[in-house]
Amino acid sequence: MFYFALMQKKHIDDFTIVANERHTREFVILTLKHPGKMPEMFPGQFVEARVDGSNATYLRRPLSIHDVNYASNTLKLLIQEVGPGTRTLVHCKKAISSTWSIH
């Protein structure tokens, strides 16, 4: 289970990972789909991520919102793979349903 916190109003929502695209050796864009109306968020803001059951992500990781598409209810996160925590996140597969906490 994933938890994400956006520094605004607090929301807890379920998203499904629909794409995991490696753009360079270090950077991956993780695309998440929301089942309903997404809370307000903007590119350039950060979310904090934690993966339940993973020792590598015991502490939350700040991730940049790369793109928000309200028409398709998708959110893209830009992730730089630099250590065990972000490595866990960038190797997430498609169609994993996750819970995201958005502040």
Characteristic terms for this protein:
single chain, 103 residues, mainly beta, seven-stranded antiparallel β-sheet, 50% strand
Topology:
Layout: E1 2-6, E2 11-22, E3 27-33, E4 46-51, E5 61-69, E6 74-80, H1 84-90, E7 97-102
Antiparallel strand pairs: 1-4, 2-3, 2-7, 3-6, 4-5, 5-6
Please explain how this structure is put together.
- The protein has 103 residues and is mostly beta strands.
- It contains 1 helix and 7 strands, in the order E-E-E-E-E-E-H-E.
- Strands 1-4-5-6-3-2-7 form a 7-stranded antiparallel sheet, with helices on one face.
- A hairpin with a 4-residue loop joins strand 5 (61-69) and strand 6 (74-80).
- The longest helix has 7 residues, at 84-90.
- It is globular.
- The two termini are 17 Å apart.
In short:
Helices cover 7% and strands 50% of the residues. It has 1 helix and 7 strands; from the N terminus they run E-E-E-E-E-E-H-E.
Q: Distance between termini? A: 17 Å
Q: Which structural class should the secondary elements be placed in? A: mainly beta
Shape: globular
Number of strands: 7
Mean pLDDT: 77
What order do the strands of the largest sheet run in, or round the barrel if closed? 1-4-5-6-3-2-7
The SSE string, one letter per element, is EEEEEEHE
Q: How large is the radius of gyration?
A: 12 Å
**Low-pLDDT segments:** none
Largest β sheet strand count, sense and barrel closure: 7 strands, antiparallel
Provide the β-strand percentage band: over 45%
Q: What is the count of DSSP helices, taking H or I runs of 4+ residues?
A: 1
Helical amount among residues, as a percent range?
A: under 10%
